[in-house]
Amino acid sequence: MSGVAAAAAPVLAAAHPGPGFPLLTTLVLIPAGGAVVIAALPRARQRLIEVLGVAFSVAVLGFAVFVAVRFRVGDGGFQMVSQHSWITQFGISWKLGIDGISLFLVLMCGVLFPVALLGGRVRSNPKGFVAWMLLLECACLGSFLALDLFLFFLFFELTLVPTYFIIGGWGHERRGNAALKFFLYTFLGSAVMLVGLLTVVYLHQRSTGHLTFDLVTLSATQPFSSTVGIVLFLAFMAAFAVKAPIFPLHTWSPPAYTEAPAAGSVILAAVMAKIGSYGIVRFDFELFPKAAAQLAPTMLTLAAIGILYGAVVAAAQRDLKRMVAYSSLTNLGFIVLGTFAITTQGVSGGVLQMLNHGLFTAALFLLIGFIYERRKTWQTNDLGGLQKAAPIMAGVFTVAMMASIGLPGLNGFVGEFLILIGTFLSHRWWAVAATIGVIFAAIYLLWAFQRVFHGRTTGPNLHIPDLSWRERAVVAPLILAIVFLGVYPRPVLDRITPSVNRLVSHVEHGSTYRQPAVAKGSSAVPVSASVPAPAPGAP
Amino acid sequence: MLHYAYIIPLLPLAGAVLLAFFGKRLGNPLAGWFATLLVAASFVVGVFVFLDLLHRASSNRSFDQTIVTWIPVGGLQIKAALLVDQLSITMVLFVTAVSALIHLYSIGYMHRDPQFSKFFVYLNLFVFSMLILVMADNFVLTFLGWEGVGACSYWLVAFWFDRDSAASAGKKAFIVNRIGDFGFLIAMFLIFSTVGTLSYSGVFGAVGSIGPTTLTAITLLLFLGAVGKSAQIPLFIWLPDAMEGPTPVSALIHAATMVTAGVYLMARVSPLLSHTASSLNVVAIVGLATAFLAATSACAQGDIKRGLAYSTISQLGYMFLAVGTGAYVAAIFLMITHAFYKALLFLGAGSVMHGLHDEQDMSRMGGLRKFMPVTAGTFIVAWLAIAGVPPFSGFFSKGDVLMNAYARSPALYAFGLLTALLTAYYLGRIVFLTFYGPERWRTSGPEEVLPHESPAVMLVPLVILAIGSLAAGVIDLPYANLDYLARWLDPLFGSAERVLTFSTGAKDAFEVADGVVAVTGALLAGGLWLRRWQRPRLTPVFFQRAWWVDWAYDTFIARPSTALANFSAYVFDNEVIDGVVNGTATLVRDSGTRLRRLQTGYVRNYALAIATGAALVLAYVASRVGS
Questions:
Q1: Count of domains in chain B?
Q2: Are B371 and B466 in the same domain?
Q3: How far is it, in rounded angstroms, from Cα B264 to Cα B273?
Q4: Cβ contact B174:B150 at 8 Å
Q5: Do A161 and B70 touch (CB under 8 A)?
């Protein structure tokens, strides 16, 4: 689907009904069902609970893969929409749909939950832990798939609860404070979003007489002045900026990532952060294209500050988990930067980087968890020379680290390169500033690596076991994906780009912004899309 | 045969992957032989491709082969495609040839190392990256090779990771290179936003549509990349430290191949560079200044490998001088001959260290020629070659560079000639300190050292490289019809290449001058260092510390940056940003009365309420699914 012809696509694509079997609904409900089953089992059956938890999450993965196989390449609209009328008097429906932007986040969920359950097993009360994890998976999948504002809000809020209990129940020493801070921060953000959300629905009803929470319908018209648009945009942004996090709303994340158990850190940084950045793309851009274009310089500035600031602070950390937390701030900065570049390359890169960052950050947090299991610390001062005793661990860490640094041939480069080149096309100097972050990434990661793995091996670091076969099996899929996406990202990009084109056209349609012609590329229009009509011809 | 060009980089890649998984099982020395064999095979394939290219008409010697579309997004279509032309195949041949020899040498040099097979994984991976770098048909794929060699350099410098100095040196190399990469990246962005493509043919075809300021910016940014990779002013500081790596690594990566990548890049973008005089001037001046600074520093080093490292920096400066004067062929010629004699110098130094319990300090060497005749002989050949004594290869290649410098400006020539004098002198000093004079190793240290010659597997590469250092000049002799390299590369550089119009008499005068300078430098070294090994006045600290550049970085950039990072992390983020958040929370709590329960159970209850509510909603939905 060409970018031009895609302008009118959301309505068309959404109109075409999902297949008979409600694939996406089933996908969301499998983990919820799993949580219920686990909750019903007696606490003592630990082994069974753990096996069942993994089985359910693997079933989700299988289903997600099935969805990905069914996904039509080249179609930028929502696919496999499953819609059921629900609270009809308020215009609320159970509506799920998937497009190129959400597809890989769903797949990432599918991969990372079993990986986190296997790689971050807990000793005490696995029943509660596994049940909360499965409920969290349901909430994450729902957030990525919901096309109804109310439904999205429900899922978005629902992610808070399991996370709060996972940090508070299975976290480290100062988990209480971290969980509380996390909860308050995100809860306040989403409260603001709720007000904005209801206002959008109300304004839409006032101008069209039609009460609906349907995203596709709401995004087709923007019945408000540009000032109101900006305020509403910011209301949604409040929730997403906290969740991502975007500078300066990030201070909840280092304690939360640090105090959470390994599996919790993996899901927080790899999956839940993406609900924030995904929310920006899906809701802020769809509902307020004009405000998105108007506020782009502001958001780009915050993103660039986040990139550089996160890197500088990360460089000073002596705590591995905090270091990765700040590096996530940097990476999310890149994602937001690409998004607000509003060019095909920038947004595609941003969406791809959501997946990429999920993969390498998950690997890093898992490895830090493995180190913790061996040494009961993640302070770099207590570690050192680990490569001697654990060369395989060092090797796996190196791959994940190099992906994060953006070494070409690994996945991080592709996303970062697309983000930066896409940003350069529309906002040159922001891209230049962000590229400095590429230098910084090497500094803080290589420093940390040296402190942990290089140098003379002394004391208890001499006798740590290398990665066990179970641990290798847990990180292997992540490493494979990191390499594969670095070498051959095309299958992913071919699915992301049409949806991104649709989104960029949507912003162009709703504002005076036009992306540079270079980004679109004349040769990029496939022969089949021979409709010559440009955007003005679209309804 | 051209269609099989992809096999050239594929072989070392396959080697790296196979050795990564099965290297330990293959063991020592089989893993090393396997890696060597693959690189040698790569060289053989390269020769066939070269012959195929040779049989084509000179206007038709460019072949593009797309392997796969790498990054396709909208108007940006990056292909993993190889470009086989005169320049890339020239690079392929010398890279694979030198690599194969150094692989062979490493089998002997590393034979006692517990990480033997891992070493060859990195070495093969390096060769793969280097081949991609020179064979890529677009900037982005070149960048992949560019970063790949950088990563391999990081791993190999830090190979003996339990030494803090090695680990730090690897890290430093990578980070300083990243500063250069910043330039490379921005240059690519600027190129794409200007012409909408990043393939070499596309960009060079559209050079007319690029404005002069943009063109200057693009070429200078690319040069920043080259300055990082090829260790020029102001980013040369990583290369001397990189000598912490095993010596074959220093020979292969930090002398013969990787560090010449910047020169290759400049030669590759000659169609852009030739349109911007100001960039050419910058390249020439930075190159010459680096050549001089590094040569003076090389005069004062006590560590044999650091001396050779500064020598490499200096020689790379000459190559950039050639590029900056539009003498691309001379740059490539010097690059090839330098690969031979500099690899030989490092391998010779490695052989000395091998026979001397890893001693690198020249004040504890001396008189070694009696114990290591082959090493000493080949090392002296390399010295005469780099000094530019006729008829060794360096005489022709450096002469070519200097002659072109003169055509651009006599001042460039004068400084170049002065540097040539220093070159002959400082390497002579190294030769005399190492192989001549009193034997200083026996008396030093508690245990007695018995120097010995290295095994054949190490000596064979030395001899082959010595032959190359002696004779490689024949590929481009400054006589009509004997300038093979020039005629081979001329169609590629075309109008970008400077055409020299010196008379035969003038050329002879240049050659005499070069020869006299080289011999003078060599004699000077002999006169000063043959009998004495300590002359503090000739090795001032200022030169030893390379004009205090590294110190300046440390004092004015590294320390303040660390302070800033600590301030940001422990004061600003903790106290200011989080302080505002906490302050607001406190304010709310104090003004409200009952919100104190936040701390106790309120949040927990609320969370449970959400959970219960959500569970009910889901149950409700589940009951309606399918209706």
A1: 2
A2: yes
A3: 13
A4: yes
A5: no
ipTM: 0.91
Q: What is the pLDDT of residues A252-283, one digit of tens each?
A: 999 999 999 999 999 999 999 999 999 999 99
Nearest to B610 among A86, A161, A435 (CB): A161
- Distance (Å) from the C-alpha of residue A225 to the closest C-alpha of chain B? 32
Q: B600 in contact with A at a CB cutoff of 8 Å?
A: no
Tell me which residues of chain A, numbers 362 to 421, contact chain B at a CB-CB cutoff of 8 Å.
Answer: 385, 387-388, 402, 407-409, 413-414, 417-418, 420-421
User: CB atoms < 10 A from the CB of B247, how many?
Assistant: 28
Would you mind telling me the total number of residues written for chain B in this entry? 627
> Where residue B537 falls among pLDDT bands split at 50, 70, 90?
confident
* Interval A387-405: pLDDT, tens: 989 999 999 999 999 999 9
Of B74, B578, B608, the CB nearest to A524: B74
Final residue before a domain boundary, out of B544, B577, B608: B544
Residues B306 and B450 in one domain: yes
B315 occurs within a structural domain: yes
Look-up of token digits 């060769």: B127
C-alpha radius of gyration, chain B, whole number? 28
Which residue, among A367, A221, A378, has the nearest Cα to A290 in the 3D structure? Answer: A221
Average pLDDT over residues A408-415: 95
Give me the amino acid identity at A489: P
Q: Return d(Cα B125, Cα B119) in angstroms, integer.
A: 10
Domain assignment present for residue B263? The answer is no
C-alpha–C-alpha distance, residues A451 and A92, integer Å? 54
Find the mean pLDDT for residues B73-79. 93
Is A128 within 8 Å of chain B by CB?
Answer: no
What does the alpha-carbon distance between residue A366 and residue B114 come to, in Å, rounded to a whole number? Answer: 29
Q: Determine the Cα–Cα distance for residues B205 and B227; give it in Å rounded to an integer.
A: 26
**What gap in Å lies between CA B405 and CA B469, rounded to an integer?**
23
* Beta bridge partners of residue B303, listed in sequence order: B361
| pLDDT for A16 | 46
Nearest CA in chain A to B573: A251
Q: Are residues B388 and B499 in the same domain?
A: yes
Kindly state whether B151 is in contact with chain A, defined as any CB-CB distance less than 8 angstroms: yes
The boundaries of the domain holding residue B317 are 279-544
Mean of per-residue pLDDT scores for chain B? 89
Q: Are residues B513 and B422 in the same domain?
A: yes
Identify which of A510, A509, A536, A535 has the alpha carbon closest to the alpha carbon of residue A226.
A510
Q: Contact at 8 Å (CB) between A314 and A444? A: yes
Residues B506 and B624 placed together within one structural domain of the fold:
no
Q: For the segment A173-223, what is each residue's pLDDT rounded down to a tens digit? A: 888 888 888 888 888 888 899 999 999 999 999 999 889 999 999 998 888
Q: Looking at beta carbons, which residues of chain A come within 8 Å of B617?
A: 154
Asked which of A448-452, B301-305, B356-360 is least confident by mean pLDDT, the reply is B356-360
* Residue at which a domain ends, from B512, B527, B544: B544
**Judgement on whether residues B326 and B459 belong to the same structural domain of the protein:** yes
Interface membership of B581 toward A (CB under 8 Å): yes
Q: What is the mean pLDDT of residues A151-173?
A: 91
Q: For residue A156, what pLDDT is reported? A: 94
* Domain-embedded: residue B588: no
B547 touches chain A (CB under 8 A): no
Within 8 A of B147 by CB-CB distance, chain A residues are 407-409, 413
Judged against a pLDDT cut of 70, whether residue A532 lies above it is answered with: no
Choose, out of A161, A181, A327, A411, the residue to mutate when testing the contact with B (most B CBs < 10 Å). A161
pLDDT of residue B595: 45
Tell how strand B63-73 and strand B76-84 pair up.
antiparallel
Establish if B285 belongs to a structural domain. Answer: yes
Structure tokens at A383: 């570690």
Confirm or reject contact between A204 and chain B (CB < 8 A): no
Q: Is residue B390 domain-shared with residue B488, that is, in the same domain?
A: yes
Query: Could you tell me which residues come within 8 angstroms of residue A398 by beta carbon, excluding any fewer than 6 positions away?
Result: A449
